[in-house]
Design a protein that fits this description.
The protein has about 450 residues and is mainly alpha-helical. It has helices at about 20-50, 55-65, 70-85, 90-95, 95-110, 115-140, 145-175, 180-200, 205-215, 225, 230-260, 270-295, 300-315, 325-340, 345-355, 360-390, 390-410, 420-430. It has one domain (about 20-440): MFS general substrate transporter like domains (Growth Hormone, Chain: A, Up-down Bundle). The chain is built from 18 helices and no strands. The longest helix has about 35 residues, at about 20-50. The relative contact order is 0.15.
Length: about 450
């Protein structure tokens, strides 16, 4: 056998991806489409929701904080990641999109601020439960030398969701539909969630998860396994790179249209299209660079991360000395779009599948994903107020966050590229105190 066969055996170590695995990767990746799509749909409608429901700046920050971009997603991640390890990947991703559809429908049909807030929180919880479970599924189906490619593909879905949402929102806004246009955008997410849910019904459970559950004890599946030795080191590494990167990416994802409009750098359509361009640039860089080189060894990964980190730091650091104007925004969008594809969520997703045992993989990613979204939620409370005073402070802080993520990600990157999950787990089990892969300069 030379390729992955999720229905009956553990994937091989080569880079051959079967048609079945591609199909299931696409269905799992739709969690990323719905996650990012809902974040950007909310962001594109923030100014309209604010004026329609007479929301204060603090209320706008709270709305951004409780939804799919932050706290709601965190709650779902903590719960979904752990239950995915205990009960199986299939039980979570089989039903959570129905909850997502209900939340998105509440937003689309909201008639006052409370229904808007409830729907936003429900969407966040649902997508938070889906993402770590779906990513664990992709990682466990993937052949060793195509794991980065398949997890990078999920990021295409993450970028496509916002592009579709933003283009649709721009067309509807240009047609003068106002808040009705935003409602239509959320109705589109309802339809996508229900169609994806229906197509997922034929998916099988992860064979790696089933094998791990048969081969391990209840003690080995407990939280203490995650909080000791190399697993704890992996948890610290993935948490730091994703938390600090996520503060910048989350700000860009949900607040870019809002800030362009409120800081008078452009109108509603300008903000939407600029934001869409950033995601489109990210998709192209992901396909041409990350998916091509992510499985070609430790050196290739570090080179991508280093270049991407520098581009992102410059993208926001330049706002310290340059004004928030259209030409500067364009440079920011290009640099961040490319940089984030090399030193951002795709790499976090890939490494998160590699540095944890199968029995706690979802728990670990749910934890780091959740912590990142909680802190992003807290940060989101302050972004509108800080932005109104000018973008210099916000830009400087985002550059600092990206510096922390970039330095830690580069120095401590684990040497796991191209190895099977079983090989990685065996190597790390031999180093119970400190993993050499997480030592500076490893590999």
């Amino acid at each position: 056998m030379t390729s992955a066969d999720p229905a009956g055996s553990t994937p091989a170590d080569d880079g051959v991806v079967s048609r079945q695995v591609w199909k299931w990767t696409i269905l799992a990746a739709m969690a990323s489409y719905l996650d990012a799509g809902s974040i950007v749909a909310l962001g594109s409608g923030l100014a309209l929701f604010q004026s329609t429901y007479h929301l204060s700046g603090s209320a706008v920050g709270a709305l951004a904080a409780i939804g799919p971009n932050a706290i709601g997603c965190a709650v779902g991640s903590f719960i979904g990641g752990r239950l995915g390890d205990k009960l199986g990947r299939k039980r979570i991703y089989k039903y959570d999109l129905l909850v997502y559809a209900v939340g998105a429908l509440l937003i689309a049909l909201s008639f006052n601020a409370p229904t808007l807030f409830v729907g936003t929180f429900v969407v966040g919880v649902a997508v938070g439960a889906d993402v770590p479970t779906s990513l664990a599924l992709v990682g466990e189906f993937a052949p060793a030398k195509a794991r980065g490619k398949l997890l990078g593909f999920t990021q295409i879905a993450w970028g496509t969701g916002p592009v579709v949402v933003l283009v649709l929102a721009a067309i509807l806004s240009g047609a003068g539909l106002g808040l009705l246009g935003t409602r239509i955008v959320f109705l589109h997410l309802v339809v996508v969630a229900l169609v994806t849910w229906a197509l997922r019904q034929g998916m099988s459970e992860s064979i790696r998860w089933r094998n791990a559950m048969r081969a391990t004890t209840l003690t080995a599946r407990g939280l203490r396994t995650l909080l000791s030795g190399p697993n704890l080191a992996g948890l610290g590494y993935t948490a730091v790179i994703y938390v600090f990167w996520g503060l910048a990416a989350g700000t860009a994802g949900i607040f870019t249209p809002f800030m362009i409009e409120t800081l008078h750098a452009g109108g509603p359509v300008t903000g939407l299209m600029f934001s869409a361009a950033g995601f489109l640039i990210g998709i192209i860089a992901n396909v041409l660079i990350f998916m091509k080189y992510a499985d070609r060894g430790h050196g290739a990964r570090k080179a991508m991360w280093g270049m991407g980190a520098i581009m992102q730091i410059v993208a926001y650091g330049m706002f310290i000395v340059l004004p928030f104007t259209v030409p500067v925004i364009i440079v920011n969008i290009v640099l961040f779009g490319i940089g984030a594809s090399l030193a951002g969520e795709q790499m976090y997703k890939t490494i998160s599948q590699e540095v944890f045992p199968t029995v706690v993989r979802g728990t670990a990613q749910g934890f780091t994903f959740g912590v990142a979204r909680v802190l992003l939620g807290i940060w989101s409370f302050f972004v509108p107020t800080l932005a109104h005073a000018g973008f210099t402070v916000v830009g400087g802080l985002l550059a600092f966050f990206l510096l922390v993520s970039g330095v830690v990600g580069y120095i401590f990157m684990p040497n796991t590229a191209g190895k099977s999950l079983e090989q990685i787990e065996s190597e790390r089990a031999e180093q119970p105190a400190v993993s050499p892969d997480l030592a500076p300069g490893a590999g």
